[in-house]
């Protein structure tokens, strides 16, 4: 029998409570959502989902691994109930699903040699000091550097942050740009390199901050709203950072951004 919530955004939460389990779409990406070496579901999104759904009266989470590009189609074809993969919230995706408010934001930072000899703090510094600049294949940081005035043809493109660290350590480049989280993690054991303070890149003169959250089918706004209510309480109490900290997240990744802002208004 439909509940009151069914009239204004789906009755999935009632069904999940009755079943006692929610199916989470994950993409096998560290640190966002993955199966660890012991075969256990973990990552920032599944661990947060465990806490929130427990508060909503759903005791268990069940992973449904898929390719990242199949997460939204899989959600909409009901292969799982929620996307729990740290998915960035953007206008294109907002046309296909409804998002929770973001549980984290992602800023940029640089890998530089110890002591940051050129004093590089943002993309404008890279341009002004004519630094040799590298970033990863397909990274958003390519656009951010070009936006600041760096010649795209002069950028060294490497496969990932490990290759970026190696390029800095070997002196092939002065700086590698990536997300604050990935750069911070990769330099932990380096004797030659360090990471700069996180910063916000500019696009068209406006700060560009990415944020990730949970995706729900467009018919399930009642579940999204209930999820958001618990998420906001975790933010207020500071519990959210405690849950995410084991996966490399810090105070710099906490955010008050909303899905509405990231969807474009």
TrEMBL record:
Keywords, ordered alphabetically: Signal
Chain ranges of the Solute-binding protein family 3/N-terminal domain: 21-251
One Gene Ontology term of the molecular function aspect: ectoine binding
Coiled coil ranges: none
Protein name: Amino acid ABC transporter substrate-binding protein
A Gene Ontology BP annotation from the UniProt entry: ectoine transmembrane transport
Claim: Protease is one of the keywords in the record: no
Keyword Signal: yes
NCBIfam families (UniProt xref): ectoine_ehuB
